[in-house]
Amino acid sequence: MVTRAPGQWRLEVNTRSRKLLFAPLKQLQVQKHGRCSFETLYLDDNLDCHDKPRYHRQVELFVAGGGDDLLALTDLAGLLQLCEEIFGYADTAMPDG
Q1: If we measure between CA atoms, which residue out of 39, 34, 51, 43 comes closest to residue 60?
Q2: Do β-strands 39-41 and 28-32 pair in parallel, antiparallel, or remain unpaired?
Q3: How many other CB atoms are there within 10 angstroms of residue 53's CB atom?
Q4: CB 24 within 8 A of CB 10
Q5: CB 18 within 8 A of CB 32
Q6: Residue 51, φ and ψ in degrees, nearest 5
Q7: Residue-level pLDDT at 78
Q8: In this predicted model, what pLDDT tens digit does every residue of 58-73 receive, in sequence order?
Q9: How far apart are the first and last CA of the chain?
Q10: How confident is the model at residue 97 (pLDDT cuts 50, 70, 90)?
Q11: Cα gap 43→62, rounded to integer Å
Q12: pTM above 0.70?
């Protein structure tokens, strides 16, 4: 089901031993198997707090020549198409003009 209502962005990943919860996306909380409470993990995001998230690292990679860590534009186009299909945006193309 695709909804167009506003809501909180979150990502939840469940493994056999824990639940990883990014809510908000910039914060990681971990719930271990058999526990009710979540533990907040603090990540070293000092550079990201001063720039857009991960922007500093992307520029660093680009200046250094990128290597395999940066996507080619052709790869990015394919990923965007996949995301549109997953989130139901493929049928809602923007009108021309």
Answers
A1: 51
A2: antiparallel
A3: 13
A4: yes
A5: yes
A6: -125, 175
A7: 86
A8: 788 888 887 677 777 8
A9: 29
A10: very low
A11: 23
A12: no
